[in-house]
């Protein structure tokens, strides 16, 4: 491979992630299905808790939902727990999604000092990286500026990032709801930073490629913290739908005024309908219909 081809910043003809996601949501609705191969789910599907079982599980999900939902979100942790063989399966799953023309959002929640963040960015957002996804989740809690290498590489390769703002777990509030001396909450600061990152796309009339993670379980936090989600020109990845308790009412209430930006994410609630591809497909379709109705899609 030439040095130019190895350069992870090599510009690509791929359209920006924000535009690709907006198109996928317009065509396939506002749902993302997670691939979370929990040991209990592998057992329930009659599969071994091994890289072989992991591969069978994940590729069945890809077969069931590709082309039927806007995006698929593999959870890296469930692959990494199988060591290097599990990571090889993750790379295969990401390739299968590419082959199927379905957007991948790799849930890795990376965040580190800028120089190390550059290496993470090359691993997941580099042009020819084996584990490249269309987008990844990142954590801004080492400072939003530390994410710059990921934002820059995503922009160069037509990929995206989703920045954790208000996570779906109850423990997130102790950090994300904290207020600084000017009374602004940490989460509101993250949303403002994302709005700045997406400003050029906004001006050009496109959805930005820097999304936000806002859990569907976060109740009145968006309102109580005075967060203006609409200002961010960002897709809103909303985990927490299904097993964590959020449904139609929560989606309507948390995302009032920004419903058209929401990409609702659900994993176990669909995966429990396996192991048959037909069952998974039916569950994903029902979720898509229910979420679309809730968000008046
Ligand atoms: O705030 C967040 C961010 C990410 N997640 C991830 O989404 C899925 C949720 O799985 P379910 O089975 O639908 O509960 C999982 O991979 C989480 O790590 C989240 O839940 N909340």
TrEMBL record:
It catalyses: orotidine 5'-phosphate + H(+) = UMP + CO2. Keywords: Decarboxylase, Lyase, Pyrimidine biosynthesis. Its EC number is 4.1.1.23. SMART domains: OMPdecase (SM00934). SUPFAM superfamilies: Ribulose-phoshate binding barrel. Pfam families: OMPdecase (PF00215). InterPro entries: Aldolase_TIM (IPR013785), OMPdecase_type-2 (IPR011995), OMPdeCOase_dom (IPR001754), RibuloseP-bd_barrel (IPR011060). Pathway: Pyrimidine metabolism; UMP biosynthesis via de novo pathway; UMP from orotate: step 2/2. It comes from the Bacteria. It is an enzyme of class 4 (lyase). One of its GO terms (molecular function) is orotidine-5'-phosphate decarboxylase activity. Coiled coil: none annotated. The keyword Lipoprotein does not apply. The active site is at 109 (proton donor). Residues 30-283 form the Orotidine 5'-phosphate decarboxylase domain. HAMAP family: OMPdecase_type2. PANTHER family: OROTIDINE 5'-PHOSPHATE DECARBOXYLASE. Belongs to the OMP decarboxylase family. Type 2 subfamily. This is Orotidine 5'-phosphate decarboxylase.
């Amino acid at each position: 491979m030439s040095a130019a081809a190895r350069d992870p910043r090599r510009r690509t003809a791929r359209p920006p992630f924000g535009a690709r996601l907006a198109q996928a949501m317009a065509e396939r609705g506002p749902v993302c299905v997670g691939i979370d191969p929990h040991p209990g789910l592998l057992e329930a599907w009659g599969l071994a808790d091994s890289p072989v079982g992991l591969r069978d599980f994940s590729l069945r999900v890809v077969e069931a939902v590709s082309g039927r939902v806007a995006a698929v979100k593999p959870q890296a942790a469930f692959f990494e727990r199988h060591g290097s063989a599990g990571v090889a399966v993750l790379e295969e799953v990401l390739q299968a999604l590419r082959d199927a023309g379905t957007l991948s959002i790799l849930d890795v929640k990376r965040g580190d000092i800028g120089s190390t963040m550059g290496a993470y960015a090359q691993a997941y957002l580099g042009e020819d990286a084996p584990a490249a996804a269309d987008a990844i989740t990142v954590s801004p809690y080492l400072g939003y500026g530390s994410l710059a290498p990921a934002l820059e590489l995503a922009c160069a390769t037509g990929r995206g990032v989703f920045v954790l703002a208000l996570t779906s777990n109850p423990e997130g509030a102790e950090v994300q709801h904290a207020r600084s001396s000017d009374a602004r909450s940490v989460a509101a600061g993250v949303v403002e930073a994302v709005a700045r990152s997406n400003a050029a796309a906004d001006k050009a009339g496109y959805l930005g490629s820097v999304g936000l993670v806002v859990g569907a379980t976060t109740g009145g936090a968006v309102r109580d913290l005075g967060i203006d989600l609409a200002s961010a020109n960002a897709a809103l990845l909303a985990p927490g739908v299904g097993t964590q308790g959020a449904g139609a009412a929560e989606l309507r209430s948390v995302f009032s005024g920004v419903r058209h930006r929401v990409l609702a994410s659900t994993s176990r609630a669909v995966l429990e309908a396996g192991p048959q591809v037909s069952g998974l497909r039916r569950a994903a379709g029902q979720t898509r219909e229910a979420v679309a109705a809730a968000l008046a899609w």
